[in-house]
Amino acid sequence: MDSMKPATSAVEPRPKAGETEKMTINVGVVDLGQVDLLVQEGYYSNRSDLVRTALRNQLALHAEAVKQTVARRTLVVGLQHFTRVDLERAVAAGERLQVQVVGLARIADDVTPELARAAIESVTVLGAFQASTAVRKALSDRIR
After folding, report:
1. For 95, phi and psi rounded to 5 degrees?
2. What's the distance, CA 124 to chain centroid?
3. Nearest Cα residue to 98 out of 113, 80, 112
């Protein structure tokens, strides 16, 4: 069972509050029992610790495929934050933004629904999208 202990190099600093999203998964009872056994034996501090470690390991395993897909689809990885000024500049330049993010896309709270519709052509987010309720509603037909 020692081979099942996570490698210490896979441990990353804990994200700050507000930088995480909740994800719910369903697992079979046998898998859940094995998870609980590893937690009891001290391999992981809790169930979430095991799931986060497994997730990071799988993402590391497929890192090249993610990198190639991001390049092919011209996605922004990480945080993309749009301020009112950013969107006003786009409108003034006659541009329509295609928001494509793997991670977190955020629109500032002072952005009006009208400005968001004028500046943003489409929103594709693999992760989380944060915007006021009014802006989300205004862009609802453009969010994929």
Report:
1. -95, 150
2. 12
3. 80
pTM of structure: 0.61
DSSP 74: T
3-class state of residue 130 by DSSP = strand
The Cα–Cα gap between 59 and 70 comes to 14
Residues 136 and 111: beta-carbon distance below 8 Å = no
97-107 sheet: strands from edge to edge: 76-82, 97-107, 120-130
Beta strands in the chain (DSSP E): 76-82, 97-107, 120-130
Per-residue pLDDT of the chain (144 residues; tens, 9 = 90+): 444 444 333 444 455 555 788 899 999 999 999 999 999 999 999 999 999 999 999 999 999 998 888 777 778 899 999 999 999 999 999 999 999 999 999 999 999 999 999 999 999 999 999 999 999 999 999 998
